[in-house]
Write a structure and sequence with these properties.
Helix Hairpins, transmembrane helix, membrane, K_chnl_dom, two-stranded antiparallel ribbon, flat
Length: 179
Amino acid sequence: MLGLASVGVFKEKGRWKIIIKNTLLLVVIILPVLHPFLKDHVLFMQVLSLLYVSFFSLIFWEVMKFLIRPSYVNADIIFAAGCGYFLLVEISAFLLLFMYYNHPGSIANVDASQVASTYIDLVYLASVIQTSIGFGDITPSFHTTKLAASFMGVLSQLYNVLLVGILISKFSSKINSKS
């Protein structure tokens, strides 16, 4: 559903961008349909996770371009800023999901009883990492997942700093243009 809702972000024309967007959208729709049949295949879950990382990264890029372009602040800009943050959580969750399926012991205390439980635990972990809360109930246990979690935390803080800078510059340019 999130993939379908995100298609509206692509407003620009460009043959390759349209091809990539449509291909990723098709894959994002078809793969979950295959999920009940292939959920026990680790390779399928890894490919699914990486495709979602690619799809949401492409959408995140489009949201960032939207945030930078205008010289004003309105409700669309504020909503896009929030969507960008949630997209970072989704990208991080699917990257963690890939890492988890690559090495099941790489993240400790994940509920692996059902695929949905694993996904929810990793969305929770991604949110905890990005908000820098760090409860410690679900933790990365391998060096690669520790590095990825660190990178996700730094990337999230960078997004926050850039976002505040963008919004302040747009807001201050609006005030300066009135005076």
